[in-house]
Each structure stands twice: as structure tokens, then as C-alpha cells.
Amino acid sequence: MINSIKNICCIGAGYVGGPTMAMMANKCPKLIFNVVDINKERIAAWNKKDLSKLPIFEPGLRELISNARNKNLFFTSEIKKAIESADIVFISVNTPTKTKGLGAGKSSDLKWVEASAREVARFSKGHTIVVEKSTLPVRTAEAIQSILNSIDSNSSTKNKSFSVLSNPEFLAEGTAIKDLENPDRVLIGGDDQKSMDLLSQIYENWVPAEKILFTNIWSSELAKLTSNAFLAQRISSINSISAICEVTGADIREVSRAIGKDTRIGSKFLDSGPGFGGSCFKKDILNLVYLAEYYGLYEVAKFWEEVVNINKWHRHRISRLIVKKLLGTVVGKKICILGFAFKANTNDTRESASINICRDLMEEGAVLFIQDPKVSPLQISYDLGQNENSELKNIKDKNLFFKFEGQWCYEKNIFSAVEGVDAVVVLTEWEEYSSIDWKAVSKKMRKPSWVFDARSVICQKKVVDANINFWRIGDGTITK
Ligand code: NAD
Ligand code: UGA
Questions:
Q1: CA neighbours within 13 Å on the CB side: how many for 263?
Q2: CA of 174 to the centre of ligand 2 (A)
């Protein structure tokens, strides 16, 4: 057993591993942090001198990286060396939904977690605290422990020992640095109090002790899944009510404000939008569904699965509505999509509602001009499964778009993206979309023109005054 922590390794330099270790390294300047990844390009990107080229965009991240990088924070591909010297190893690798085999479509694919545990078993020296940072199915700690216990008899150092803890991450993208700096809670699950205390001491450098919760390991694993399930459930709930608002004349923003004033409900996470995205909500709920089914709790499984089903339905509802308002057809019509990231202040597009809505509109024959301040055209091609046709930018004759039905191109500039369009669809709540000069935009649009605001960020009056038809998510007073 160790008495103090000096050296930390994090396996996985992604959206969680990178920012989390950057925060810890800033708060604990005496400790050494090695963040490792099998993806060499990602490591190279974390080491780029030009901080605007870091692999992920998060407000406040650049400052943390520039303070600690190559002082006590290192991004490296030398996994063996990093594990050998570590007192604590955080496993922060991806845990996507399985695409084939048993549990496909619901359970988590744990092959990266297993590979990480095997690397720890192989390279660690002495006692190592192994921390589950990834979001994992309940009882994964048992599987990790069994891999760690079966140390290869040829291994050079046999006197190794391990404690496995669960310490799930609750940061949200776009606000990751704020969330890490001031978390609502830090959850540490385990049965080895000494190791739990050592992990807790790291956080105590900046997190008040009363915010650090100790639980048994299974509660910690389940609390993470449940937390995401509850958050996603609120969004599906409010989005389902937005559909009722649109047919009854109620306004979802007024409904949200009214119910959020009830302190038992609370006002957060009640913004209706185009449907939740992000890498985790869907996968974590499906994981919970799989768990419930595995234990024969079919009613519980059905209850949670509906949160995902409604989300899918809601996205299609928005694309169908756009087609309907554009006189029932969008073939050859030029539509500007504002926002491709799954939320503002991130370059992440995983499970973004924009992907589904763009695909639906392209299938209907629309020609899309897509703008996002942080998402690259390469990423959009990957997500849409179709390369951009940059020739589209040079076409001046609006009628020519018939020839290009179902195609898309990227526009860096909002003003160029709206040239000759029939509609503008706002799908991400980027701050800059709230200050668009609609009078100027209106002059560039084809008539009749439409603005569809799925994020409630656009001022209705400015759009209507500019002689553009307006639809806002969940506002029945407009759409009736
Ligand atoms: P990510 O895909 O951005 O990063 C994971 C990284 O792990 C990748 O760079 C991958 O190359 C690396 N990796 C995989 N196997 C490896 C191995 N054997 N050795 C070294 N590196 C390896 O994923 P992420 O978004 O950071 O999520 C990681 C985990 O954290 C997931 O379980 C996720 O559910 C959870 N989580 C994510 C968020 C979020 O906002 N993204 C928030 C909380 C929790
Ligand atoms: C979410 C959780 O908020 C984090 O606590 C958790 O750690 C993380 O998942 C995870 O495990 O990965 P994240 O997905 O990054 O974080 O972002 P959120 O702010 O939760 O947004 C998720 C989706 O819900 C986005 O598409 C967002 O636009 C949407 N949303 C959010 C709404 O439509 N309305 C809201 O009121 C809030």
C-alpha cells in the first residue's frame, strides 16, 4: 500500500482525460500527470505549440494547458513508462454502444477498458490505484479486478497489487472547465478506504470536502448512469411538451419558466431544443436499459427506452415540419443550417441532432449550406457520410440547385451561407446567432423566406420585421 501520491497516469486523452488532467495538474503543481493515448495524432495535437490546434475546443482549456504542459502535465504515447511510474491510473477511454454481438445496440463495448486494464496489469509496479473515470456498466469494477488479479506469470515484477475505485466524471462539454473547477460533487466509490482517501486528497486541493461523496463501488457506477438518464429524461419531457405547445397555442418557454419555479422541479435543463445529442446520453440510457433487461426488469427497461425513442421522434418531427412549411417539398431548395455541434461551445458533433435533421432534409432533396464556428467540413462529411460539394458555392443561378439535390457544402461565413436560401435553420445555440442582422439577411434570401429556430436564440420581432416567416420550437402562439 502507498502512503502518498506523486505520479498519475491517465489512459485516454479525449474529451474527459485531457481537460480533467489539465485541471488536476493546475491544482496540484507538485504531482506529475502523464496522459497517454493509443491515438498518436491526438497526442501530437495535445502537444501543438499553437493552442488553437488542440484536439478539442473548450472555453478556458488553452490557459490550463499552457500553464501546466511540459511542467507537470505531459501528453505522451509512452504507455508503458507512464503506467510503470504511476501510483494512480485513471481509465478514461471511450465506452461506446456495442454494434455487434451479444447486447448489440444497447450494452457498452468494453474492449478499450479491458485493453487498458491489461496494460495496467502488465506494466504497473508495486501498488497501483486503478480508477474508473469512464462511464461503465454496473459491476465493471469486478471485471477490471479480475484482469488485474490474473497477472502474467512471466511478468517481470510479480509483487504487484491493486485497488479499483469508481470516480465517474460529471463534466458537460462546453462548460467542462467550469464544471471541473466547481463540481456539484465528486463521487468516489470503493471498498478500500485508504485508497479512497488518497484519491480524495487530490480533489481536496480545490474541492470543498463536503462535496466529496464516498459510496460503495456499484452505487457509484450506477449513480453515473442514472444521473445522465435523469438529465436526458428532462429534455425528452420538455421536448414532448413542446409538441403539445405547438398545437395548442401555449409557449414552451413560458411553460418551462412556470414549472421551473417549483423548487422541487428546478429551472435547469428545461430548454426545449432539437433533441439531445452528445456522446453519452443515448449510450448511457441504452446501457441502463440493457442492465434492466439483463435482470428481467422489462418494465423498467421500457420506461427508460422511451426517453431515447421520443428524442428520435422529436428530431424527425422538426425535419418534417420544415418540409411542410416550405410548401411540402424541399427538392432543389437551398437551406442554410446554422450549427452542427451538439451544443454550443464545443466542436463535438457526436449524436448531434443536426446530423439527423440534415440527413432527413438531404433525403428530401434539399441543398444544404452548413455553418458552424467550430466544426470542420471534414467532420461534417464524416457525420453525413457524404463529401461536401464545394462547387455549390460558385453557383449564382438559384434555379440550378435542382441539379444538386441532396448535396451540401460548408460555409465559414454566415452571410455567405444565407445567399439565395429559402430557409435558415438554427440547430445549435451559438452566441453569434443571436445577433444576426435579419434585415440584411432578408435581402439575400429567396421569397417566401423562413427562419426555423430550434434553440430559441433568435429574436422573433427582428425576423418578422425583416419580412421573414418565423417558427420557433414549442411556440404555439406563432405556428397556429
Ligand atoms: P474520447 O473518445 O474523446 O476519448 C477516449 C480516448 O481513449 C481516445 O482518444 C482513444 O484513442 C483512447 N483510448 C482507447 N483505448 C485506449 C487504450 N487502450 N490505451 C490508450 N488510449 C486508449 O472519449 P471521452 O468523450 O473522453 O469519454 C471517455 C469516457 O468518459 C466515456 O466512458 C464517456 O462515457 C465518459 N464521459 C464523457 C463525457 C464527455 O463529456 N465526453 C463526460 C463524462 C463522462
Ligand atoms: C452530459 C451531462 O450534462 C454531464 O453531466 C455528463 O458528465 C455528460 O453528459 C457525460 O456523461 O457525457 P453533455 O452531453 O456534454 O453532458 O452536455 P449537456 O449540457 O448535458 O447537453 C446534452 C444535450 O442536451 C445537448 O444536445 C444539449 O443541447 C441538450 N440540452 C441540454 C437541451 O436540449 N436542453 C437543455 O435544457 C439542456
A1: 0
A2: 9
